[in-house]
Design a protein that fits this description.
The protein is of the alpha/beta class and 365 residues long. It is 40% helix and 17% strand. It is built from 14 helices and 12 strands. The strands form 2 sheets. It has a 10-stranded mixed sheet with strand order 4-3-2-1-5-6-7-12-10-11, sandwiched between helices. The protein has a two-stranded antiparallel ribbon with strand order 8-9. The chain is globular, with a radius of gyration of 19 Å.
Amino acid sequence: MNAVRSDAERDEGESQVRLLIDNDTGIDDALTLAYLCSLSHVEIEAVTSTPGNVDVEQVVANNRALLKLCGKPDVPVLVGAREPLEIPLVTTPETHGPQGVGYATLPDPGSGSATDNDAVDYWIHAARANPGELTVLLTAPLTNFAVALRREPRLPWLLRKVVIMGGAFYYQGNTTPTAEWNTHVDPHAAKEVFAAYTAAAEQGLDSSKLPIVCSLDTTERFEMQPDFLTKLSIEAGCAEPEIVQASDPEGTLSKSSNPLVRYLSDALRFYFEFHRHYDQGYIAHVHDYFAAGVAAGTLDYETRPATIDVETESQLLFGTTVADFRGLWGKPANAQVVVANDPEAGFAELVQRLGALARKLNENS
């Protein structure tokens, strides 16, 4: 895997990416969306909202406000499913706060970018109109994508790339002992998605179009330390470095004059505290950022083909993802599972990109 490149080298070497984002914003989703807004080679076609970390109305509000904060208020924000396919919605205020963004306060997004147009219809129309051009980044439960595949089974052929953050294979779950959050919220949707790609593979879908799955096995290697915020504030040109420490009283709010640094600090502080409450240390696993780097082509990684299925019947193992790397089921691979990445280079990339965006936003305010 390669070392971090300079901004000029990266911009020169990165091809344009037209991106459809589906999220359930969420602290790490929000960090991810801000990062993607910082990339000049990424065109965000739309952000579609799925219930998960919070209900879908709050997801929409968070997406609209964050896009406004990051200087992209005209990106469409669309509403998809309002609940999982077959089970009641469970949200996670203990992890992300009652509004999904920790202690952060986002600006009023005003009127404009949100639309009641169906997110799934939008995806299908966009994919048909731009075959082979669109990359889909899925950092939420797979409800919307499952419905889209029901309505348009040719989506695997029409999309350029699909990146999924979800699942846990030879790794402990973060919701149950074996299940990861996104998959556990709507395991029936995840099962449908992987079944659709099995069928597509049996019909000759090229392996390059199989979804790239970023599971907990590799996303939890992106373990953010509080000094990330200090580095970010310095990169952003803040007059005073942002200092977040484990010894601070819980709920301490940032006093940074930079709005993006202040927002990220207040959101991530809540996330640090959550991980400490669950005996993981004063850290934050920023799962979705890694998946975004895979979708954007900015982070290095390695994959192995596998056939993935999801348990939806067993009470004990509900929502568990299983990957067959050896072909024991006799089925074709339906995914490319990430098996290696480079967190140190990834965090250096994140500091540089977000720092530049924060500096630019401050200068334009």
